[in-house]
Amino acid sequence: MADAMKRRSVFPMPVTGLIDHPEFVALTAAGRGMVITLTLYYWQSECRPMPTKLSELFVVARANPQMWAKHRTVILRIFNDIKPELDEYFLSRKGKIQLLRQWGAISTAKRKAARLAKNAPPVLAAEDAIPAISAVPYQRVASPEERGPRAKVAPSKRG
Q1: Which one, of 19, 103, 27, lies nearest residue 61 by Cα?
Q2: With a threshold of 0.90, does the pTM exceed it?
Q3: CB 68: neighbour CB atoms within 10 A?
Q4: Which of 71, 100, 116, 134 lies at a 20 to 30 A Cα distance from 147?
Q5: pLDDT at residue 159 above 60?
Q6: Mean pLDDT of the chain
Q7: Residue 74: what are its φ and ψ, rounded to 5°?
């Protein structure tokens, strides 16, 4: 079985402005479909600017040429009426997501700091941390003559 594609995360789209728009209600089914297709394209592209050429909008709307010619002005007027609501809602949701991520990062940092503090070794007092140096007299290393002859070691037999 092929690996299932991960589902893309998209904010829920506000539709009140669209559903309550009087011209949307009066459109034919084909006209409504084109408006919804344009709106979904805009929303799923994270409210990036729409194409400006009518020929490009025609392709985005997946329109029938006769229906597009008949309803184009109404469709674009409806879309331009609901666009500010879409933009405002998208920016609001995006801001909330960023804020939640920041709070999560702060919370994670606090938990890590608490865990480090809990597992840290106890702090020693300065006099305990630095060992006292005892006054050991310096002993000079004996010279080869003072050490005496070296013992001879028999060579090892490796087989």
Answers
A1: 27
A2: no
A3: 20
A4: 134
A5: no
A6: 77
A7: -70, -45
